[in-house]
Specification:
Length: about 110
């Protein structure tokens, strides 16, 4: 991201994502994962850790049939970001979203 986080922030402010509908757009699911991953990276670069936590949680908890490298990297950043928040802001309560297993992983264990 080359340290120009303010430019990325402006892009995020102009183009927020509220709904994910791949059939209506030409975007693939990995495009959405990348959007939220890079949004989290921009927020970390601007030292907006709570905002970064939200973006990275969205990336990690997106429903998928298989684990992607993007989600793994987002999870690593999520853990580091939550540790920074706990150390710098101990009074703040960090809430995590429960991840659900996909149907295919439950069926394969049966």
């Amino acid at each position: 991201l080359a340290g120009c986080y303010h430019m990325g922030r402006r892009f995020l402010d102009e183009r927020p994502v509220f709904e994910i509908n791949p059939p209506a757009t030409t975007l693939a699911p990995t495009d959405y994962l990348r959007y939220f991953y890079y949004a989290g990276m921009i927020a970390i670069g601007l030292k907006r850790y709570a905002e970064a936590l939200d973006y990275l949680q969205t990336c990690v908890t997106a429903s998928a049939t298989a684990l992607s490298a993007i989600a793994v990297e987002a999870y690593k950043k999520l853990v580091l970001c939550s540790l920074v928040l706990r150390v710098w802001y101990p009074e703040r309560q960090i809430q995590y979203v429960q991840c659900r297993r996909s149907r295919s992983s439950r069926e394969s264990r049966s």
